[in-house]
């Protein structure tokens, strides 16, 4: 198995705000390439513990090799299941929880998953490729209006009706199997822009990925339950990459009596980090503390 190519986003800021130190228990609810988890483990030392969770079995398998011997417990699960996992491990509460809601570079680099529309890989888009409906199956069965609603709601794509109409018309002739096929179809529906910095297919792929994985449902569930998993003074840090997630986090933090918001404005990547790791440019981190 190839080593991870993922660069953890906002690593210095995560360490600063979650303050991992010897003997503490922290949860990395989105293991990914393991960068945040490794940094936590180094600081909690042998007296502490890092519970690292990910839905993607490849991320878990890679971490079993790269993070062996460290004070880390790996679990393949959805981060919304953190309360259940802690209960099973007989851990009453923890000192800090991190959720990094972005895709890992490892997932984008895997041309068999369809996360990157620059490849000819099968259109899957599931974080756990062994469970649930993939994007090909979703596109094959869903009605035009429902599809347009998904693309508009989750991708904030103003050409959603046009894209959905084209997808439905195309699938009557031949199924849409690859990420490359879908990307080309979407690009044909979106007028070219001289100012847009992202590929026209980005918003549609985002919407389908969110729908396939039930991402917003998981986030909403976690926002309700995770504060109860923290010790008094424990901190919850969430890194989001698009406005839908960030709005949910901002409002949940502000309206939860169990939490005290520590970041009035989201923390953004420094100019230096944005240059080294362009994927960090859209990252926003908010932090709250258990009262």
Written description of the protein model:
The protein has 291 residues and is of the alpha/beta class. It has helices at residues 11-18, 35-44, 57-66, 82-88, 105-109, 135-141, 144-155, 160-173, 179-187, 202-213, 215-225, 243-254, 271-276, and strands spanning 25-28, 49-54, 72-76, 94-100, 230-240, 259-261, 284-290. The radius of gyration is 19 Å and the shape is globular. The mean pLDDT is 93.
Summary of the model, kept short:
The protein has 291 residues and is of the alpha/beta class. It has helices at 11-18, 35-44, 57-66, 82-88, 105-109, 135-141, 144-155, 160-173, 179-187, 202-213, 215-225, 243-254, 271-276, and strands at residues 25-28, 49-54, 72-76, 94-100, 230-240, 259-261, 284-290.
What are the salient characteristics of this protein?
7 strands, alpha/beta
H/E series: HEHEHEHEHHHHHHHEHEHE
Task: Decide which structural class fits the backbone.
Answer: alpha/beta
Spatially, the strands of the biggest sheet line up as 3-2-1-4-5-7-6
Shape estimate: globular
Query: Which residues sit in consecutive blocks of at least 5 with pLDDT less than 50?
Result: none
Distance between the termini: 43 Å
Summarize the biggest pleated sheet: 7 strands, mixed
Radius of gyration based on Cα positions:
19 Å
- Total count of helical runs of at least 4 residues: 13
Classify the helix fraction into a percent range: 40-55%
Mean pLDDT: 93
Q: Count the strands?
A: 7
């Amino acid at each position: 198995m190839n080593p991870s190519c993922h660069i953890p986003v906002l690593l210095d800021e995560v360490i600063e705000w979650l303050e991992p130190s010897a003997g503490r228990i922290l949860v990395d609810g989105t293991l990914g390439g393991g960068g945040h988890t490794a940094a936590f483990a180094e600081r909690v030392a042998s007296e502490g513990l890092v519970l690292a969770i990910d839905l993607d079995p490849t991320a878990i398998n890679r971490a079993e090799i790269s993070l062996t011997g460290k004070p880390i417990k790996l679990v393949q699960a959805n981060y919304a299941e953190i309360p259940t996992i802690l209960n099973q491990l007989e851990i009453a509460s923890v000192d800090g929880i991190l959720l990094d809601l972005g895709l890992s570079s490892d997932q984008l680099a895997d041309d068999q998953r369809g996360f990157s529309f620059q490849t000819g890989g099968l259109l899957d888009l599931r974080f756990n490729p062994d469970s649930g409906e993939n994007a090909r199956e979703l596109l094959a069965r869903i009605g035009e209006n429902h599809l347009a609603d998904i693309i508009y709601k989750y991708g904030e794509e103003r050409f959603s009706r046009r894209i959905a109409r084209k997808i439905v018309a195309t699938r009557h002739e031949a199924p849409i199997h690859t990420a490359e096929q879908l990307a080309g179809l979407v690009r044909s529906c979106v007028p070219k822009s001289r100012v847009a910095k992202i590929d026209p297919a980005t918003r549609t792929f985002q919407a389908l990925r969110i729908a396939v994985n039930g991402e917003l449902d998981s986030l909403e569930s976690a926002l309700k339950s995770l504060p109860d998993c923290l010790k008094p003074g424990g901190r919850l840090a969430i890194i989001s990459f698009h406005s839908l997630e960030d709005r949910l986090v901002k409002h949940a933090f502000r309206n939860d009596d169990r939490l005290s918001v520590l970041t009035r404005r989201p923390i953004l990547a420094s100019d230096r980090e944005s240059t080294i790791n362009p994927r960090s440019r859209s990252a926003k981190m908010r932090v709250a503390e258990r009262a």
